[in-house]
Amino acid sequence: MNRQIYAIALVGLSVGVGAITVYPSAISAKPASGVSASVSDSSALTDLALHLKKINAKMYGAYWCSYCTHQKELFGKSAIQSISYIECDPRGANAKPNLCKAAKVTAYPTWEINGKQYVGVQSLEELAKWSGYKGSTKF
Questions:
Q1: pTM of the predicted model, to two decimals?
Q2: One digit per residue, pLDDT tens: the chain, 139 residues?
Q3: CATH code of residue 83
Q4: Are 97 and 89 in contact (CB under 8 A)?
Q5: Number of domain units in the chain
């Protein structure tokens, strides 16, 4: 009986060690792909958001759109308040579907910057570049 318990414990230990060896990413301290490990400067985020508002840039989206949520999260809760966001779904809060239709928005999110449209989630660096932002880019 002791031999069976010892054999089961040994197999269990081997499987556990094998899992750690086979799946090292599960215990890695390295950030997931696409996630920045650097600390962002919240004032840079706010400055970019205020710049986008100043040049009349717009983000069109829908309350149920997970990509729109991700785009907003890139700015953070404070800075996103300065972005000119237009809700396209008539069921959403403060909806303005007529503006979305007039802008010929067909996918979310869509950014309108300096007369051009950019569809999909955009990096903060690209938004800064397309808008002519000259401030800190420690996002």
A1: 0.70
A2: 555 544 444 444 343 433 333 333 222 233 333 434 344 568 999 999 999 999 999 999 999 999 999 999 999 999 999 999 999 999 999 999 999 999 999 999 999 999 999 999 999 999 999 999 999 999 9
A3: 3.40.30.10
A4: yes
A5: 1
